Amino acid sequence: MLTSQRKQLILEALKRDGQVVAKTLSVEFDVSEDTIRRDLRELAAEGQLQRVHGGALPASAAVVDLAGREQIESASKAAIGRAAAGMIARGQIAFVDGGTTAVQMVRHLPLDLRATIVTHSPSVAVALANHAELEVVMIGGRLFRHSMVNVGAAAIEALSHIRADLYFMGVTGVHPQAGLSTGDREEAYVKRALVEHAAETVVLASAEKLNAASPYKIADVTAAGTIVVERNTAEALTAPFDALGITIVRA
Protein backbone atom coordinates (compact mmCIF):
# COMPACT_ATOMS: atom_id res chain seq x y z
CA MET A 1 0.00 0.00 0.00
CA LEU A 2 1.31 3.44 -0.93
CA THR A 3 1.90 5.95 1.85
CA SER A 4 -0.64 8.33 0.32
CA GLN A 5 -3.29 5.58 0.31
CA ARG A 6 -2.57 4.70 3.93
CA LYS A 7 -2.84 8.34 4.98
CA GLN A 8 -6.16 8.68 3.21
CA LEU A 9 -7.47 5.61 5.04
CA ILE A 10 -6.25 7.05 8.34
CA LEU A 11 -8.18 10.26 7.68
CA GLU A 12 -11.29 8.30 6.74
CA ALA A 13 -11.05 6.30 9.98
CA LEU A 14 -10.58 9.52 11.94
CA LYS A 15 -13.68 11.05 10.37
CA ARG A 16 -15.70 7.88 10.98
CA ASP A 17 -14.58 7.09 14.55
CA GLY A 18 -13.57 10.48 15.95
CA GLN A 19 -10.10 9.20 16.90
CA VAL A 20 -7.42 6.78 15.76
CA VAL A 21 -4.97 4.67 17.81
CA ALA A 22 -1.48 4.10 16.40
CA LYS A 23 -1.22 0.52 17.66
CA THR A 24 -4.56 -0.44 16.10
CA LEU A 25 -3.61 1.15 12.79
CA SER A 26 -0.27 -0.66 12.70
CA VAL A 27 -2.07 -4.00 12.99
CA GLU A 28 -4.72 -3.05 10.44
CA PHE A 29 -2.16 -1.94 7.84
CA ASP A 30 0.49 -4.50 8.78
CA VAL A 31 3.17 -1.88 9.28
CA SER A 32 5.23 -0.82 12.30
CA GLU A 33 3.98 1.67 14.86
CA ASP A 34 6.93 3.88 13.87
CA THR A 35 5.54 4.02 10.34
CA ILE A 36 2.11 5.01 11.64
CA ARG A 37 3.60 7.63 13.95
CA ARG A 38 5.46 9.10 10.97
CA ASP A 39 2.21 9.22 9.00
CA LEU A 40 0.49 10.96 11.89
CA ARG A 41 3.34 13.47 12.26
CA GLU A 42 3.15 14.36 8.58
CA LEU A 43 -0.64 14.64 8.62
CA ALA A 44 -0.45 16.83 11.71
CA ALA A 45 2.10 19.09 9.98
CA GLU A 46 -0.42 19.50 7.17
CA GLY A 47 -3.14 20.47 9.67
CA GLN A 48 -5.16 17.34 8.92
CA LEU A 49 -5.28 16.02 12.50
CA GLN A 50 -4.14 16.70 16.06
CA ARG A 51 -1.71 14.18 17.52
CA VAL A 52 -2.28 12.96 21.07
CA HIS A 53 -0.61 10.28 23.16
CA GLY A 54 -1.04 6.98 21.35
CA GLY A 55 -2.88 8.30 18.32
CA ALA A 56 -4.71 11.31 16.92
CA LEU A 57 -7.92 13.36 17.12
CA PRO A 58 -9.64 15.53 14.51
CA ALA A 59 -7.92 18.89 14.10
CA SER A 60 -10.09 21.94 14.59
CA ALA A 61 -11.07 23.78 11.42
CA ALA A 62 -11.27 26.99 13.42
CA VAL A 63 -7.56 27.84 13.25
CA VAL A 64 -7.47 30.02 10.14
CA ASP A 65 -6.74 33.73 10.44
CA LEU A 66 -9.33 36.26 11.62
CA ALA A 67 -10.49 37.19 8.12
CA GLY A 68 -10.99 33.54 7.29
CA ARG A 69 -12.90 32.85 10.53
CA GLU A 70 -15.25 35.74 9.81
CA GLN A 71 -16.44 33.83 6.74
CA ILE A 72 -17.23 30.59 8.63
CA GLU A 73 -20.98 30.17 9.21
CA SER A 74 -21.56 33.80 10.24
CA ALA A 75 -25.32 33.21 10.61
CA SER A 76 -24.68 30.35 13.05
CA LYS A 77 -22.22 32.45 15.02
CA ALA A 78 -24.79 35.24 15.23
CA ALA A 79 -27.34 32.79 16.64
CA ILE A 80 -24.85 31.50 19.22
CA GLY A 81 -23.94 35.07 20.12
CA ARG A 82 -27.59 36.05 20.53
CA ALA A 83 -28.25 33.13 22.89
CA ALA A 84 -25.13 33.88 24.95
CA ALA A 85 -25.96 37.58 25.21
CA GLY A 86 -29.24 36.69 26.89
CA MET A 87 -27.39 35.02 29.77
CA ILE A 88 -26.00 38.26 31.20
CA ALA A 89 -28.21 39.75 33.89
CA ARG A 90 -28.37 43.33 35.12
CA GLY A 91 -25.53 44.19 37.50
CA GLN A 92 -23.33 41.22 36.60
CA ILE A 93 -19.65 41.25 35.68
CA ALA A 94 -18.80 39.16 32.63
CA PHE A 95 -15.50 38.26 31.02
CA VAL A 96 -15.86 38.18 27.23
CA ASP A 97 -13.19 36.44 25.18
CA GLY A 98 -11.92 37.44 21.76
CA GLY A 99 -12.93 35.98 18.42
CA THR A 100 -15.65 36.39 15.85
CA THR A 101 -18.37 34.66 17.89
CA ALA A 102 -17.65 36.88 20.90
CA VAL A 103 -18.05 39.97 18.71
CA GLN A 104 -21.38 38.62 17.50
CA MET A 105 -22.38 38.07 21.11
CA VAL A 106 -21.77 41.62 22.35
CA ARG A 107 -23.55 43.06 19.32
CA HIS A 108 -26.69 41.38 20.65
CA LEU A 109 -26.49 42.85 24.16
CA PRO A 110 -29.44 45.20 24.88
CA LEU A 111 -28.50 48.86 24.66
CA ASP A 112 -30.10 49.50 28.06
CA LEU A 113 -28.25 46.68 29.87
CA ARG A 114 -26.40 47.88 32.96
CA ALA A 115 -23.56 45.48 33.58
CA THR A 116 -19.77 45.31 33.37
CA ILE A 117 -17.97 43.67 30.45
CA VAL A 118 -14.29 42.86 30.98
CA THR A 119 -12.43 41.91 27.82
CA HIS A 120 -8.91 41.54 26.47
CA SER A 121 -10.23 41.94 22.92
CA PRO A 122 -10.04 45.38 21.25
CA SER A 123 -12.63 44.16 18.71
CA VAL A 124 -15.12 43.37 21.47
CA ALA A 125 -14.50 46.71 23.17
CA VAL A 126 -15.08 48.64 19.92
CA ALA A 127 -18.29 46.68 19.26
CA LEU A 128 -19.60 47.99 22.61
CA ALA A 129 -18.94 51.66 21.84
CA ASN A 130 -22.65 52.52 21.60
CA HIS A 131 -23.71 50.64 24.74
CA ALA A 132 -23.73 53.69 27.01
CA GLU A 133 -25.12 51.84 30.04
CA LEU A 134 -22.37 49.22 30.02
CA GLU A 135 -19.09 49.66 31.84
CA VAL A 136 -16.37 48.28 29.58
CA VAL A 137 -13.04 47.32 31.13
CA MET A 138 -10.14 46.63 28.78
CA ILE A 139 -7.38 44.23 29.81
CA GLY A 140 -4.07 45.27 28.28
CA GLY A 141 -1.03 43.31 27.13
CA ARG A 142 0.70 42.26 23.92
CA LEU A 143 -1.68 42.16 20.94
CA PHE A 144 -1.95 38.68 19.45
CA ARG A 145 -3.15 39.61 15.98
CA HIS A 146 -4.37 36.15 14.92
CA SER A 147 -7.24 36.40 17.41
CA MET A 148 -7.10 40.17 18.07
CA VAL A 149 -6.67 39.71 21.83
CA ASN A 150 -4.17 40.94 24.37
CA VAL A 151 -2.00 38.25 25.94
CA GLY A 152 1.02 37.93 28.21
CA ALA A 153 1.91 38.47 31.85
CA ALA A 154 0.39 41.96 31.97
CA ALA A 155 -3.00 40.63 30.86
CA ILE A 156 -2.96 37.77 33.38
CA GLU A 157 -1.91 40.12 36.20
CA ALA A 158 -4.68 42.63 35.40
CA LEU A 159 -7.50 40.10 35.26
CA SER A 160 -6.33 38.32 38.43
CA HIS A 161 -7.81 41.19 40.47
CA ILE A 162 -11.32 40.76 39.04
CA ARG A 163 -13.97 38.21 40.00
CA ALA A 164 -16.57 37.72 37.29
CA ASP A 165 -19.98 36.08 37.38
CA LEU A 166 -19.57 34.64 33.89
CA TYR A 167 -16.81 33.97 31.39
CA PHE A 168 -17.79 33.59 27.75
CA MET A 169 -14.97 31.56 26.24
CA GLY A 170 -14.00 31.18 22.61
CA VAL A 171 -12.04 28.04 21.70
CA THR A 172 -10.86 26.15 18.64
CA GLY A 173 -11.35 22.70 20.15
CA VAL A 174 -13.93 21.13 22.50
CA HIS A 175 -13.31 17.44 23.13
CA PRO A 176 -14.54 15.10 25.92
CA GLN A 177 -11.03 13.73 26.58
CA ALA A 178 -8.67 16.38 25.17
CA GLY A 179 -10.61 19.17 26.85
CA LEU A 180 -10.90 22.81 25.83
CA SER A 181 -8.04 23.87 23.58
CA THR A 182 -6.69 26.61 21.36
CA GLY A 183 -3.90 27.10 18.86
CA ASP A 184 -1.62 29.50 20.76
CA ARG A 185 0.25 28.89 24.01
CA GLU A 186 0.00 32.41 25.46
CA GLU A 187 -3.66 32.68 24.55
CA ALA A 188 -4.26 29.39 26.39
CA TYR A 189 -2.62 30.85 29.53
CA VAL A 190 -4.94 33.87 29.48
CA LYS A 191 -8.03 31.74 28.92
CA ARG A 192 -7.02 29.46 31.80
CA ALA A 193 -6.68 32.48 34.09
CA LEU A 194 -10.10 33.75 33.01
CA VAL A 195 -11.65 30.37 33.91
CA GLU A 196 -10.07 30.54 37.35
CA HIS A 197 -11.48 34.01 38.04
CA ALA A 198 -15.06 33.42 36.90
CA ALA A 199 -17.86 31.74 38.83
CA GLU A 200 -19.13 30.03 35.65
CA THR A 201 -17.66 29.42 32.19
CA VAL A 202 -19.82 29.39 29.07
CA VAL A 203 -18.17 28.03 25.92
CA LEU A 204 -19.27 29.35 22.53
CA ALA A 205 -18.81 26.45 20.12
CA SER A 206 -19.82 26.34 16.48
CA ALA A 207 -20.01 22.83 15.01
CA GLU A 208 -16.48 22.66 13.58
CA LYS A 209 -15.02 22.98 17.09
CA LEU A 210 -16.89 20.06 18.68
CA ASN A 211 -14.98 16.81 19.17
CA ALA A 212 -11.89 18.49 17.71
CA ALA A 213 -8.60 19.39 19.36
CA SER A 214 -5.89 22.04 19.07
CA PRO A 215 -2.28 21.96 20.35
CA TYR A 216 -2.68 23.91 23.62
CA LYS A 217 -5.03 22.73 26.34
CA ILE A 218 -6.85 25.37 28.35
CA ALA A 219 -8.68 23.12 30.82
CA ASP A 220 -10.65 19.93 31.13
CA VAL A 221 -13.95 20.13 29.29
CA THR A 222 -15.79 20.01 32.62
CA ALA A 223 -14.48 23.50 33.37
CA ALA A 224 -17.39 24.57 31.17
CA GLY A 225 -20.76 24.71 32.91
CA THR A 226 -22.52 25.43 29.63
CA ILE A 227 -21.74 24.98 25.94
CA VAL A 228 -23.72 27.04 23.43
CA VAL A 229 -24.05 25.32 20.05
CA GLU A 230 -25.97 25.80 16.83
CA ARG A 231 -29.59 24.67 16.94
CA ASN A 232 -29.10 21.97 14.29
CA THR A 233 -25.93 20.49 15.80
CA ALA A 234 -26.11 16.69 15.61
CA GLU A 235 -27.04 14.93 18.84
CA ALA A 236 -24.06 12.62 18.37
CA LEU A 237 -21.73 15.62 18.69
CA THR A 238 -23.23 16.95 21.90
CA ALA A 239 -24.08 13.65 23.68
CA PRO A 240 -20.57 13.14 25.19
CA PHE A 241 -20.73 16.57 26.84
CA ASP A 242 -24.29 16.09 28.03
CA ALA A 243 -23.18 12.82 29.65
CA LEU A 244 -20.55 14.76 31.63
CA GLY A 245 -23.25 16.98 33.14
CA ILE A 246 -22.52 20.03 30.97
CA THR A 247 -25.58 22.07 30.01
CA ILE A 248 -26.05 22.23 26.23
CA VAL A 249 -27.83 25.33 24.95
CA ARG A 250 -29.00 25.17 21.32
CA ALA A 251 -29.08 28.62 19.75
Automatic annotation (TrEMBL):
Which Pfam families does the entry link to?
DeoRC, HTH_DeoR
SUPFAM superfamilies on file: NagB/RpiA/CoA transferase-like, Winged helix' DNA-binding domain
Show the GO MF annotations.
DNA binding; DNA-binding transcription factor activity
Signal peptide residues are none
Under PROSITE patterns, the record lists: HTH_DEOR_1, HTH_DEOR_2
Matching Gene3D superfamilies: 3.40.50.1360, Winged helix-like DNA-binding domain superfamily/Winged helix DNA-binding domain
Q: Which UniProt keywords apply?
A: DNA-binding, Repressor, Transcription, Transcription regulation
Ranges for domain HTH deoR-type come to 3-58
| Protein name in the entry | DeoR family transcriptional regulator
